Please model this.
Amino acid sequence: MPDRHARCAAVATRVSVLLPLPLEGPYDYEAAADAPLAPGDFVHVPLGGRTLVGVVWGAAKGDVEPQKLKRVIERLPVPPLREELRRLVDWVANYTLSPPGAVLRMAMSVPGALAPARGVTAYALGENGRAALAAGGDSLSLARRRALVVLVDGPPLPAAELARQAACGTGVVRGLVAAGLIEPVLLPRRPRPPEPDWRRSGAALSPDQRAAADELVAAVERASFGVTVLDGVTGSGKTEVYFAAVAAALARGRQVLVLLPEIALSAQWLARFAERFGAAPVEWHSDLGEAARRAAWRDIAEGAARVVVGARSALFLPFAALGLIVVDEEQDSSFKQEDGVIYQARDMAVVRASLAAVPIVLVSATPSLETVVNVQQGRYRHLHLPQRHGAAQLPDIRVIDMRRARLERQRFLSPDLVAALARTLEAKEQAMLFLNRRGYAPLTLCRACGHRMQCPDCTAWLVEHRFLGQLQCHHCGRSERLPPLCPQCGATSSFAPCGPGVERLAEEMNARFPAARIAIMASDTLTGPRAIAELMRSVEEHRIDVLIGTQVVAKGHHFPLLTLVGVVDADLGLTGGDLRAAERTFQLLHQVAGRAGRADRPGVVYLQTYMPEHPVMRALVSRERDRFLAAEAEAREAQGLPPFGRLAALVLSAPDDDSADFTARAFARAAPQMPGVETLGPAPAPLAVLRSRHRRRFLVKAKRGVNIQAVLRQWLARVKVPGSVRVQVDVDPYGFL
Model:
């Protein structure tokens, strides 16, 4: 789509420039009349005593006297920030009540990519060198002759590579340069990413898959905005279906963005993509090195990166020709950014697709209630894959009533689950144990006095990580060794772990099945994409018998020999006052269960629960997902909760209790008083202290038609906030800590 602000626009001598700082808007600058600037241009500008890179945002506001204007230093030789991305920055800033500059910073996350790309000096054979070889080379040493021969029919080479191929030293290369026999050539430093081949045939599709793929391809060919929900049971082959849409976008010369919620999902996905398209996509996530991020950003901006797979931050990349967005596992709460600019990447991806006028596909086996309601109200198209691909069948799901199970002391696996594990291992098949709790034990206390080891900086228990020999806070990251004496009573050797984490399950499994090969998969045991890929290979090649993991094992993985899944604490997510607790627990357990029986061997799932009558457990066993979601929707609608109403959280944090309470009272006095709006609080946040800051929380509940952003802006404007107090606004909160 052509940029509305054409680059041939009239010369502007005054422009507004948005800087990637937490500022409320762009600043006016003067541009040279002989160097016209257009919206989207990256420029160097002065600010105070610094020189910063900003983006021309449009015409000047005109609120600065001409003699006080500072001048733009230069325009950077990089592709301009396209209108669709500038509009997204403004949209996200307005929706989340964030400074536009803070949102822009996410689109300019790699400052080094804006600098001119540095080339590599290589050497090519010069005319004098050709003449010397043509004359027989009698005047050349053997080393010099070998170096010239290497370059006769080959490409220019850097000095070190030329010396390696000619079996000589770099001094020989320098001598050839000094003699004028070879000539320096500047080559681009970064090679272009490989082009995925959309012409390659994919896997054979079932009739249901082919019908869904044809619908997605048609959406891509329409080249207009539309949201399609690809809803299929676990193992139904959703990835192969949307690969057909990716191929269609590539055939049209467009770029594709695929968002994944977890880096842990990428290992098998990348392998499947490379098999389908013959080349790897460009990756974008926090584990990339700076050089890789710089190259990826430039390749995306220049259109050389055709397919990008990344975490939520990839949403703000500067695509030159975006043609399709895919959000895989759209229901996953990891798409919610909780720090800095707080946003829901799935929802903002829909906004970006709308602004770019391209189709977007939301993919899930357990769509979020928000997505389901949008389908029911006709806003989104719906494609359903009701069967697993090939001969695979959905697993049998069984409930273990832990109120009747006879657990051994300091053991957490019921006799029924232990027996199932024994049968699985005897059959040379694989098992997975799921417990969404990292570390060895969630709580450590003193047997003598009952003292509980708590984080001194947070209202949270320190979690024992026995393999690391440390206690860790999972909220602020604090880490310390278990002290030899109880800090409360001074008792020695009195600490006891309470409850299980994945490390403690591994200890129990090693005791029960010493011959079994066991591995743990959790966010703190995986050190990056390579470690994840190696673990995936180990499971696929049956070098692991039992995989014990947290939620990173739940989604997207395909292990043909995995036939048993045991959920150790199925009730874990059902408490805590989260309005989405039941929905999230159902989604997570459904996804975990979906790892079993994905090939030709049948699977079985055991849910250890103290609440077998809970609607979540009943829905999982009966596979009545739609009935469960309908009941959830009815309950939320009756209470005016999302997606039928609006919520926003306002969290104050201060260095001490008094400052937090003083500011909270000021906000309470200024709270909105209007029809359709209810303000709850202030109250101490469940995490009342986080990183040594005391926190107070408000919750604003509004009817669907209320402009909650306008309500919040007016409220914030009525309160003078002390400099030591921070105010965080979360529109559409997903977490309530």
